[in-house]
Amino acid sequence: MAFDVSSIFAQQVQAVSKSDTGRELHTVDIDDLVSNEANFYAVDEDKLEDLKNSIALSGIMDPPTVTPAEDGKYRLISGHRRTAAVRALVAEGRADLRKVPVFVRSPKSAAMEELELIMANSTARVLTSAEISQAAQRVERLLYDLKEQGVEFPGRMRDHVAEACNVSKTKLANLHMIEENLIQDFKAQWAAGKLPDATALELARCEIALQMRLRDAFARTKEFPTSAGIEQVRGLAKSGAKWRPSMLLHCPDRKLCPSSRDDATLRHDATCGSWTPQCKGELCCMDCKYGAKARGCHPVCDQMCARAKQYRTDKNADEKREEETAKENQQRVYRVAIQLKAARLVKAIDAAGLADDVKLAFANYSADKTVEKIRAYANGDFGDDYFYGTDVLDPDAKHVPELCEKLKCSADYLLGLTDELSPGSKPDTLLWRTDTDYPDGQVLLLLDIEGRKNYDVDTALGGELCVYDAGLLTDNGPHVLRWLPLPPEEEGSI
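^ thats the sequence. predicted structure below, dont judge the formating
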């Protein structure tokens, strides 16, 4: 059976008289309650509001635990926050809360009193990791004091410390690592809640020299690397990374890379993520595809040197100018095409006698255009209009009939298939014939050959076919279903 550290209290209770250890409920004046010097847990008065509201409404539901002190006072073992809340309420005029219910205990020793204080706070409030670490150190010392007093502790002392502090053994081991190995600057940030546990732990696993370099590298920044970033640079340091530019690393003007770049390269590797190659100070920012030469999907390094940043600034400015020039040229091409289309429309508009305020709809995805706007386009006046193609005046199938009706023109004209506004006369249509009066020249035949239809070409002379003559066109042979005279071949055709 696992050892229960709380059994220590039971053992101690049996060792003294009942009057000395009974958990008796008393009512005492708030001014007779004094704080315990052994209490290292912070009482943030700014966070007492909820507790004050609860006590103001229902009183103290869980009385503090105290022990007799000098001059008729009672020293707090647990309930420092509750006591602070009551003091604040009394100061605000709640005199009815002045009398406080408390449980009075008389621990056998100072060690037992402090241990009970720590255990009570470990279960009654949410502690920061720094508070848990401090409590663990105190508990370990107190348990060794009790051991010297004759209390036996089976098993490992660390297991009992974890039980008394209400934390896992793994967390306790991690907190011990932080306490033992983290440099003071980082430990202060961790204690203040500015450094997450995971980050503090990875820092504590680093050599002292690397911790100090990380401290200096991030001293003037508002961010700090994640635990993964620290783990990354720790691995790089073990493999020999120094984060100091080589003496062979020169800028294009042959100047050596300055030593001020050391911290920048370290910051890069601590924050770049696993998808970006580490720098280690071994590559010039001007040559790096994440620096001056960053393109496309490559993320841009925010730690590149000033020269690389200026290069990118100038390069981006040049590319922007080229892009703007390309856009302007494209717009000119678009406008020329649109101007020609507008001129065709104006011809139909004039013929139809449409007023300038008449609106013409060309497609659902584009806004209607007034006659006045189309005339402006035809005159080369586009104003501030920006075009993404040449189809702004191209009608879709849905709007062709409406436009033809308004413009009094044919669909062929509207679609640019003819320059004639109205449909002209159509050439005579060649019709299939079924007689046998074949004109001289080539004839297209539709034949019935044993129930299958087949097309073939023959030549007629003197009203007779040369291939499919009367001798072939028998009752059992092919039958001409209909025929069509073919136009004569053009000169030079093959």
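Confidence is low (pLDDT under 50) at residues 1-21.
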